[in-house]
Amino acid sequence: MARLADYFVLVAFGPHPRGSGEGQGQILQRFPEKDWEDNPFPQGIELFCQPSGWQLCPERNPPTFFVAVLTDINSERHYCACLTFWEPVEPTQEELCARDAAERDEEADEGGPGALPPPTPSPPGQLFAPKTLVLVSRLDHVEVFRNSLGLIYTIHVEGLNVGLENVVGNLLTCVIPLAGGSQRTISLGAGDRQVIQTPLTDSLPISRCSVALLFRQLGITNVLSLFCAALTEHKVLFLSRSYQRLSDACRGLLALLFPLRYSFTYVPILPAQLLEVLSTPTPFIIGVNAAFQAEAQELLDVIVADLDGGTVTVPECVHIPPLPEPLQSQTHSILSMVLDPELELADLAFPPPTTSISSLKMQDKELRAVFLRLFAQLLQGYRWCLHMVRIHPEPVIRFHKAAFLGQRGLVEDDFLMKVLEGMAFAGFVSERGVPYRPTDLFDELVAHEVARMRADENHPQRVLRHVKELAEQLYKNENPYPAVAMHKVQRPGEASHLRRAPRPFPRLDEGMVQWIVDQATAKMQGAPPAVKAEKRTTVPSGPPMTAIVERSGGLHGNSARRLEVVRNCISYVFEGKMLEAKKLLPAVLRALKGRAARRCLAQELHLHVQQNRAVLDHQQFDFVVRMMNCCLQDCTSLDEHGIAAALLPLVTAFCRKLSPGVTQFAYSCVQEHVVWSTPQFWEAMFYGDVQTHIRALYLEPAEDRDSFSVGEAPVQEDERSALDVASEQRRLWPTLSREKQQELVQKEESTVFSQAIHYANRMSYLLLPLDSSKSRLLRERAGLGELESASNSLVTNSMAGSVAESYDTESGFEDAETCDVAGAVVRFINRFVDKVCTESGVTSDHLKGLHVMVPDIVQMHIETLEAVHRESKRLPPIQKPKLLRPRLLPGEECVLDGLRVYLLPDGREEGAGGPGGGPALLPAEGAVFLTTYRVIFTGMPTDPLVGEQVVVRSFPVAALTKEKRVSVQTPVDQLLQDGLQLRSCTFQLLKMAFDEEVGSDSAELFRKQLHKLRYPPDIRGTFALSLGSAHTPGRPPRANKDKGPSFRTLSRNLVKNAKKTIGRQYVTRKKYNPPSWEHRGQPPPEDQEDEISVSEELEPSTLTPSSALKPSDRMTMSSLVERACCRDYQRLGLGTLSSSLSRAKSEPFRISPVNRMYAICRSYPGLLIVPQSVQDNALQRVSRCYRQNRFPVVCWRSGRSKAVLLRSGGLHGKGVVGLFKAQNAPSPGQSQADSSSLEQEKYLQAVVSSMPRYADASGRNTLSGFSSAHMGSHVPSPRARVTTLSNPMAASASRRTAPRGKWGSVRASGRSGGLSTDVGSRLAGVGPPQANGAPPEPGFLRPQRAALYIIGDKAQLKGVRPDPLQQWELVPIEVFEARQVKASFKKLLKACVPGCPATEPSPASFLRSLEDSEWLIQIHKLLQVSVLVVELLDSGSSVLVSLEDGWDITTQVVSLVQLLSDPFYRTLEGFRLLVEKEWLSFGHRFSHRGAHTLAGQSSGFTPVFLQFLDCVHQIHLQFPMEFEFSPFYLKFLGYHHVSRRFRTFLLDSDYERIELGLLYEEKGDRRAPQACRSVWEYVERLSKRTPVFYNYMYAPEDAEVLRPYSNVSNLKVWDFYTEETLAEGPPYDWELAQGPPEPPEEERPDGGAPQSRRRVVWPCYDSRPRAQPDAISRLLEEMQRLETELGRPPERWKDAWDRVKAAQRLEGRPDGRGTPSSLLVSSVPHHRRSLGVYLQEGPVGSTLSLSLDSDQSSGSTASSSRQAARRSTSTLYSQFQTAESENRSYEGTLYKKGAFMKPWKARWFVLDKTKHQLRYYDHRADTECKGVIDLAEVEAVAPGTPAMGAPKTVDEKAFFDVKTTRRVYNFCAQDVPSAQQWVDQIQSCLSDA
C-alpha cells in the first residue's frame, strides 16, 4: 500500500528579492509540515509550478492544470500536480503575504515587505497574481490528482459548505494499493466519489493515450528516430506551448522504451530558470515551453522535437543509427497499418463500408504492442548470453555482448551495439537477468512468441492480429475493471474564474490537518501490512538465438565440404601424413575465412587434446599453429563468434619439446592478434568460466562430468543450464540455515578467486612476447598499459602500418620499452583483476593477495620464456623454396640480391583466382630483386595445388610512381609483417610482405637503393645512359683524333658557338635562365663559367644568318639537315636548304636556320619552317610574344588543300598588345611592345598570304565550294560543332600551371560581340542572320572561311578583337592542364590496379572508378579538338594551335591532326618521324614529365605522351586497316617511353641532347653495338625478325583523312592498362620474354606430326598472342620452321608476306570465282570503314562482316583467309606455288565405297605427289577437302570385286582396292582404262617414295 499524496502545498506569487520585473514563487503553506521519513519534501517546487516564470497578468485567466515530474537523488520520480488560478493583487494582501512568508520561511530574505515592481501602464490598473495548489505524490494517477485539486478549488470558488482542512487531511491520508489489479473507491469528504484502479503488474508502464498522441503530433518516421535517439543515448528536447502535452509526450516516449528503463535526466517540464541544464554533457529527455525555442536552437548536439509543428530536427553532427533491417521497414509498415488502417483499402475498387477505428486509448496500446514485439525480436535469446557470476548472497549477472551480436549476425550493426553498451541495457540485465523473479508480458513474449513472430513476418494480417492481442493485454493491465469507473466530483460552474472571487484562497488550519494525518498514521500502524505476496517463478529462457537475417554467405555456401577438408587436414596432421596435410593446407586456410570452419577447427583440436595428443613434433606443431593463426586473424577485438574463446584452452595445451626440460606451448606463437589485448574479451571469458565452475558447485556430483568444458561450449540440452541451477538455488535460499548460507557464499567466493589466479596466468601467457626484445607486438599494443576502452584503435594502427613505427628501429626506442614489457603486462592484468573481482564480490583481502601475486606470476613466466626463446633459436630453419633468379638484359646488373617476400594480390581478380576462373597464382612466395633497370619479383604460388608455375612480375625502376610502407599478413603464417607497396606507371603493382628472415634494415636498404635508382641526381645516372658507356659520367669523352672531327666534338662545338653567340651580347646584364630550366630546377651544368643564358633582347644584327657559314657551322648544318624534321619537311615540299640567296622565290615557305644555335628558342629544333617573306632577324622579335619564345612555325602542309598546320606556345600578355590587345591597356615599354606586336601581326599576315588561295586579300577569299551541303557530307550530323569546346573539368578560371609574374595574363576590356557564335557558325558553314532580320548581304560573304584559325586557350583569348579583315579568327577552347592529366592518371592507375581487393568485386565498381578518373573524358577532348582541326585543314583553312606552353597539349593535338590527315604517318616509318619531329625535336619535356631525376621528383609523373598513344590506340580500334603498325607497337612505346631503357625519350629538348652529346653520336662511334641506344633502332631490328609490330590488316586507301568518333561511349579502355602476363613479366622487353632470339614454339612434339598435346592458357598468366598466335603469324612461323628443316636459309617474314599478298592480288581474277575481297585487298572501298567509323560515301553502317562473308565463299588462299586455322596442314604448301593446279599430279572422278554399311559415292579424287597423298572432294570446284589417304600408309593396290550397292553399269574390271594399315578402300572407275590409269599412277607414286 502507498499514500496517494505525500504533500499538499500552496504556492503564491511573491516579489523578486532583487526587485527585478519578474516575481518568484513563495510557499504559503505545506502539509504535513514535517517531512515523511520515507520521503523527504522535494526542493524547488516553486520553480516547477510556473515553468515560464512568475508574472502578474492584466486579466483573469482560466485555471490551468499540469503534472510536472521531479527526480530525487535516488532517482525516484515525484509527480507534482499543479492547479493554478489567478487572484487580483491587493497591496494589503501583498504585504500580508510578504510578511507571512518572511515569518514562515527560514530561507526567505529578511527584507521586510518587498516593494511591488513599478506597475505597468495598463488603464484599469488591476493586476492578477497566480496562485498554485500542488499535490506531490510518488504515484502516477493524473486523473485522480486533477479531480482532487479541482474539488479543492471548486469548494473555494463556489463557497461550498465543506471544510477545506478536512478535504486536504483526507487527501493526505488516503492509502491505495500499488499494483495487482485491485480497485479502490475513495472520497475526500465533500460528497465526492472516485474509483482508483491499480495496474495488474507494476513493471509495465502506464501510458493512457500519450503514445497515440505522440504519433499524431510527430508521425511515424519522426517518432522512430526519436525512439532510436533515446535508446542510443542522444539528447532529446520537446517543445510545445502546452505543458500537459510536454509531459504526455515524454511519458509516451518512455512507454515505448519498455522493457528498457530510461536512466538519464528526465524532466518533462523544465522551468525557465533552469534552461542551462540543456547544455549538460549527459543524455536527457526534457520538455521546454515553445517560447524558449530560440535558446534551444543554439544547442549543437540536441535533437529538437517540436510537438506543435510536428517536426524533428536532427543537427548535422548527430548521427542516429537506424534499427537494423529488416526490422526498421517491418516496424514502419506495421505502425502505418495501426495508425492508418484505411491505407490498405485506399486502392480497392469496392472498399468495405467503414472500418472500425480503435479508440485513442486502444490505438495507444496497439502502438506500444508494435514496439514490444520489436524489442522481443531484437533481444530474442538474450538469456542465453547471460553469465551467472554469483548466485549467493545476491545474484551477480553479466551479459556476453560480443557473443550476442555474433550469434544474431549483427556485429556491424551500429544501433544494437550502442544499445547494448548503454546504461538502460545494463539496468535491463541487472533487473531482468535475475533467474527467479516475477515475470511479465515481455518475458512471455521473448521466450515463447519469437517463433510465431518469425512465421508471421510476411503476413501483415497475422502480424496485425498479434499486435491486437498484445494490445488487449496492455489495455487490461491499465484498466482491469473497465465497466466500473464511476466518478462523482463537483466542478466549478462555467466561467466561474471571471466572477469576482469572494476572497483570496484562505489560510488553512495547520493543526487540524496535522491531527487528521496523525490519526490515520496511528490507525495504519495497528493494521497488518496488506501486501499481496508476489508470485515468483523461474524465468523462461526461450529458444536459442538465431540471426535476425539469415545471411547465406555466398562465398562459403558449400560449408559441409569445407568442414570435411578442415577435418581431414587435422587428422592428417595428427596421423603424421604431412605431405597430404600440406596439399590441403591452402584449401583449409581459405575455408577458415568461414565461421563454421573456424568452430569446427576448434572442436576437432579440442577432441585431440582430450585424447591426450597435445604433445606434437615440430612439423605438427607448425601446422597447428598456422591454422590457429589463420583462425584468429579474422577475429575482431571482441571475438563475437567465440573462436578465440574456444582456442584459448587449446593454445595452452598444445606444445612441443625443444630440449629436455624445455617445452614450447602454442600460445607463444599466436600472440600477434588484437583480441588478446582487449579487456572485454578477457572479462567475457572469465565470467563464462566462472559460470561453468559455479554451476558445477551446485550440480550433483553425478552430473559433474563436464565441469571443465571448453570456455564457451554450448551446454547440452538434457542438462540444466546455469540459469536453471541459479533459479533453483535462489528459491531454496530463504529455507537454508544461516551456517549453510555462509558456507555457500564462501565456496562461491573462493571459486571466483581461484579463476582470477588462473586468468592472471593465462593472460601473462598471451601477453608476454616470446622474444621480449622484439617488442613490435607491444608497440602495436602500446595500449596495454592505457587500454581503458575497447577502442578499435589497435586494429587501425597495425593496419595503417604507421610511418612512425618504421623509424623506431634506429632511435633506440626499443630498448627503452623492453624493460617495461613486464610492467605493462602487470598493469594490464591488475586492472583486469580489480574490475572482475570487485564486480564478482571477492573480499578485499583476497584482492590484495592477488595484487601481490601478479608481478611474481609475470616474472616467473618471463624466465620460462627466456629458455624457450633460446632453444627455439636452435631449431633448424624450415626449408624454404630456393630463389629463382630472374633473367637480365645485356648490360643490366643486379643491385640488390633477392629478398624473400610474398607477393600479394593487387586487387585485380584474375591472378588471385577470382570469379573469372583460373588458378590462384597470387599470393606467391619468392624473392624481389633490384637491378639497374627493373624491380623484379620471381616466385611460385603459395598454394601448392596451383602447380609449379613461375610467377614473374616486374617493372622498370624508372616507372615507379608511388612507394608506401604497409603492414600486411603473410599468406602462409598469417603473421603481420612489414611490407612495401610499389606502384608503377606501366600498370604493375608489387604488394609485398617481407619474410621474417628479412630484417628491417635490409628492407630499408632496399627502399633507399630503389629511391636512388628511381631518382638519380643527374640524367647521366639513368640506365640508358650509364649502360655500356666506357667513360664515367663526369669525364669528357675521348675524341677520335684520326677521323677528323667526330660527331661528339661537333655537338660540343655547336653548343660552344651557341654560348659564344649569346655570351657576347650582354656582359653587363644579369643572367636570366629561360623558364623551362628554372621550372625544372635542373642543377646547373658543370662548366659554370659560361652558363647558358638568354638575354631579353638580342640585337637583330647578330642573328642574320651569314651566307658564309664557318666550317664547323657547316658541319652542324649538315647534321641538322639529317634530323627527322628536315627529312619530313622535304617530303612535304616545305622548302629545301639551298643557298639562302638563290632560293626560288616562288616557294611560299623556307627552312630557316635561324635557331641552329638554339639562341631564339631553346626548346625548338635547329631548323624551322617560316614564311618566305619573313626575314630571320624579325623572328627574334616575334618570338618574344610567345611563351618560352615558341613562336608559330609550320609543321605540316596538306598535299591536297595546301593548308598548313602551325604550332606555337601560348601568347604572352606583352605580345598580344598590338594584335589582340584591349584598347585601354597601355604598357610601360609601349614602343618596344608595339614593334614586336606589329612584327607578330606581320608574321601572321605573312603566313596567311603564303597560302596560295589567299594570296590576294581583296575580298575574293570565299571558299567557293564550301556550301553547307558540302559541310554536311563531310561532317556527320551529330557533330555540328560549336567552336567553344567547354571542358567540364577545368574550372573556367583555371590559371596556367606556373604563371610567371612578368608575363601576366591577357586582360580584356570587354568581350567582343558574339565572337564565339560567329566563329562557330562560320565553322558550321551557316551565317547568322543580320541584326535587322534581312538576309545576309552578298558583299560581306558569310559562308566564307577565315584563312587562318588560331586555336587558343579560352582563358588566354578573353576579350581579344577579331581581325578586321577576317583573315584569321580565334577559336577559344577550354583544355585541361598538365596537373589535371597527372591527377586523372593517378585515379586511372587506382582504378585499373586497385592495390587491395575490392569489398564487393563487381564490374560496376571498376567502371565507376574509371569514370571518376575522367581519363576518357580527356581523351575525348583531345580527339574532338583534333577532328575539328582536321576538318578546318581539309577545307583549306590553315590552323595555328597555340595552347599552354606549346609542348604538352599542343604537341598532342598537332601530332593527332597529322596522323589523321596524312596516311604516311600511319606507317611504321612515318609514325617514327612524327614522334621524332613533334615530340622530340619540338621539345616535349620527357624528363620533366616523367620525373627522371631527383629534381623532378616533386613534380611527379604526368603521362602526356601516354595519353597521345591512347588516342592513337582509339583511332586504331576504329580504323584497323589504316595503320601499318599493330596495337602492340603502341603498347611497346607506352612502356618504353617511361622505362629509360633507351636514350630516345630522355631529356627535354634537342638542345639538351646535343649538350649531353646524345644527338649525333649514334652515327659517329658505334662502340656498343650490342645495346640499342635508340628505341627506333631496336624496333627496326626486331621487325626484321618477327612481325610483332606489323598489322596484317593494313590496306590503306590513298589520301584518306580519318575522322574518328570521339564520344566517350565510343572509347574503349586500352588493354595496356589492364592486361598482365605473370609468366614472364611485361612482354615489352622482347629478349626476356622470348627466351631464344626467334620466337619459340613452346611444346613441339618431335617429328612434326599434328599437335595433339593440349595446353591451358591462363588469362593473366600467359601472353596470349604468343600462346595462341593469330593464324598468319602461326603460318609464318611454321614456314620458317619447315624451311629450316629442309635446310634452306629461312626467308624473312616480310618478304614471304609481301609475296603472298602479291599472289593474292593476281589470283582469283581469271577464275571468275568472285573477287577475293580478303582482309588484304579490298575491292569495295566502303566496306572497310569498320567498327563504327562513319563512312565517306556509300551505305552507312556496313562493317567488316561484309567482307568476311564474301571471303568465305571465295577461293582465297589459306594464308590470307580467316579459315587458315581450320584447314589441313597440307595447305601450307600452297604458299610455295602461285597457282594450286601444280599440286595436282593426277585427278578425276572415282566411286568410293563408304565405311561399313554406307553406300558408294562419286567423288573428285586428286593424287598429289608433292604432299604424297590422295585427297578427295565432293566435286571438282569444291575447295573443302573431304578426306585424305596418306600414301605412306598404303600397303598394296589390288584389283577389286563389285561389292553390294556398286554402280550397275560398270565393268567388273573397273573395280580396285587400296589397302592401308588402317582399312581397305574400295574404288570403282568409270571404265576399265581409267581404272588401269589410276592404279598405275598410285603405284608409281608408291615406288617413287
TrEMBL record:
Residues 1101-1114 have a biased composition (Polar residues). It is found in: Cytoplasm. Residues 1119-1618 form the Myotubularin phosphatase domain. Residues 1086-1099 have a biased composition (Acidic residues). InterPro entries: cDENN_dom, dDENN_dom, DENN_C, GRAM, Myotubularin, Myotubularin-like_Pase_dom, PH-like_dom_sf, PH_domain. Pfam families: DENN, GRAM, Myotub-related, PH, SBF2, uDENN. It comes from the Eukaryota. Residues 1783-1887 form the PH domain. The keyword S-adenosyl-L-methionine does not apply. GO terms for cellular component: cytoplasm; membrane. Residues 7-439 form the UDENN domain. One of its GO terms (molecular function) is guanyl-nucleotide exchange factor activity. Gene3D superfamilies: 3.30.450.200, 3.40.50.11500, Pleckstrin-homology domain (PH domain)/Phosphotyrosine-binding domain (PTB). Residues 1745-1772 have a biased composition (Low complexity). The keyword Cytoplasm applies. Residues 100-123, 1026-1048, 1064-1114, 1287-1316, 1627-1655, 1745-1778 are annotated as: Disordered. Keywords: Cytoplasm, Guanine-nucleotide releasing factor. Belongs to the protein-tyrosine phosphatase family. Non-receptor class myotubularin subfamily. This is SET binding factor 1. It comes from Bos indicus x Bos taurus (Hybrid cattle). The gene is SBF1.
